[in-house]
Amino acid sequence: MYVEKLEAAYPIPMLRGIKPLPGRHPCYGNPKKLLSIDNLKNFLGVSSLETMVEDCIEVPKKTKTKKPRSLSVPKEVSRQRDIALFAAVEALQEASTAERLLKCLSTYSQLLKAKGNDQQLSVDKFFTLQDDLTNTRLILHSLKSIGQRRTADTNPNAPDAVGEALRLALDIKQNTTS
């Protein structure tokens, strides 16, 4: 077919000057649809209007999910703070114990140097040395018990273990100051 002119019209454009091409066979019979609308719907997966409306109107339901333990930030921060505090207290206790021990050794060396000068001063220094050594031994014993309890814990990161360690550190501090 040969189309001379295509005129714009609404809703369908108009064809003007249609002539068969020479040497071609004219169309005979009833034309049939190459693609029916039903087959086209199935091919494209078009759904009915009802399901389209339901999909548009359907409000997604909010599911209440539990927060993972790791998202509990304030609790985790306070737990880490407690662990850091315990480590700092333990380090200070060990440093204090080492300082006390060095002081005892210094006092002992002074006693050895003062052979016969002032006997009363030497006796006083000896009793002071004995008291310092006793206190240092108590502190070392409590530090040792903390180390044993901490290694005996199955989960040192548990909140109960941290609280117990802080109580032990407080006991050590009280022993140190007394």
From TrEMBL:
InterPro entries: DUF6857_pln, DUF936_dom_pln, DUF936_pln. Residues 1-35 form the DUF936 domain. Residues 74-178 form the DUF6857 domain. It holds the Pfam family DUF6857. PANTHER family: DUF3741 DOMAIN-CONTAINING PROTEIN, EXPRESSED PROTEIN. This is Uncharacterized protein. The lineage of its organism: Eukaryota, Viridiplantae, Streptophyta, Embryophyta, Tracheophyta.
